[in-house]
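ok trying this again, last paste got cut off
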Amino acid sequence: MPTYKYHIALLGGGTIGLSMAALHLRRSDTKVTIYDPRLNIEAEVQATLPTYLTKAPSTSSTSSEPAEGTDIIASLISTNRLTIAKTIQEAVQSANIIQEQSPEIKTSKQALWKEVSLYADTNAHLWSSSSGIAASLQGSLCEPTIKERLLVTHPFNPPHILPLIEIVPGPETLPERMEFAKSYFGDVPGPESNQGGYYRPVVLNKEIEGFVGNRLAFALLREACYLVGEGVVSVEDLDTLVMASLGPRWAGSGVFESYHAGGGEGGIGAFIQKLAPTMNGVWSGLGQVDVSVDGDDATDESWRGTVVKQSEAAYGPSASPESRRKKEVMLKGVVEMQKKCL
């Protein structure tokens, strides 16, 4: 039975959890144990994980050749690269990396890390895939030895394709723990390659709610909801506008680089000077929309009702499997083009 340098316990086997499992399994030196309290988790792994694996991962810690055979999951399990645990204790007790993908509820994550601390190795790396709950909040009820090792490693959905990992250490996280996470993800191969360097870990200098990626995305979503709710543009036309302009531009240049180029010889300073009146007018008039937690604002007459109604009319009640497959192919193509051109 082969041995592996890294043993990752993934706590949570939902969409993000299984996508992260596919990411980790691309490293030939890593084995994965999944824990999820749902009774059907084994069936979910069997049905979903293979769709995230472009090719069968290596089943040897010394070989990069893919496993033979059509039953990928059975091969991974038989070679000890993949285990499905029955309890948190079973999942974490021999792991040297523990990564949680539990629901986005602060108290739930706090309780989870308290339980993990009972069974985990005292040197294990502790990672959270949270979309916005800071490590300092998640570990606030834990001992200092947990806080020193706990940090956020936030992926963008779907993690097995999109190469961003936001690394967000807490104020008590040791620098070497952050450096280890950055090094680990920096060596993960891409979907079509055995070479590392596909993922782009970005380290945030300090904690902030929602981190950076989601703050930018939600800022655009808020204005999009406002514009649709005010009847300025339809859901479908707004999406077309983004895909035909901002999307392609930002795939090649980020926000600051784009506007730096837009300023010509004077760079972004000249751009801001020239467009200051328009920017001031737009910024002061950006829409304010409220998302009530209990859903009371979801009437047909509200912006929320309008957005939901138009989105379902344009794209159906939810994304179809065929639509998701097409989008994944497109995302892979965009990322590969970036690697060639940037």
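PB: full thing came through this time. The chain has two domains: 6-203, 213-252+290-341.
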